[in-house]
TrEMBL record:
CheW-like domain ranges (all copies): 18-174
Matches recorded under InterPro entries: CheW, CheW-like_dom_sf, CheW-lke_dom
Protein name: Chemotaxis protein CheW
Organism of derivation: Dactylosporangium siamense
Gene Ontology cellular component list: cytosol
Gene Ontology BP, a term: signal transduction
Domain of life: Bacteria
Pfam families: CheW
Amino acid sequence: MSVEAAARGRGEGTADDATRYLTFTLNGESYALDIFHITEILEYRNLTVVPMTPDFVRGVINLRGRAVPVIDLAIRFAKGATSIARRTSIIIVHIRGMPGSGDAAAADARGNGQDIGILVDAVSKVETFTAEDIEPAPSFGAGIRADFISGMAKRDNDFIIVLDIDHVLSLSDMADLATAIPEDS
């Protein structure tokens, strides 16, 4: 659900209007994800590299017997690769079905969907933002694709980029990228 839809559905400025977001850093920028999508946060662990996958797929981890792909958000945002350091983390998110393919909630009830790990520099904390705290997504100037952003959360004298996880980790986009074969020039 977009930030705007959440604001319309719950009213403006009430305590019930607040949504919790996990904040994290990536290349010195602050980002946030709605905690509704997050299943767990892991310390960085060695990844098994899978040949012939797009660059942003750094590998897979074994998560309780399941192979979970790990996406490097820095590469996905065309900002270079994430350097592995002491606070590097993997955020496990659950993506329901294929965005835009119909009833994602019904698909998830049938067990469809995918757990995906996202590699970040460091997890910061859980923040609560109201609809009044979140500005509409800019059409340009954030350094990443506009459709990846659901809004800009005001915090102190700065902004935190609120990601639209369904677009950032669009299974159909990633499938298209994974099957794309570079042309020989």
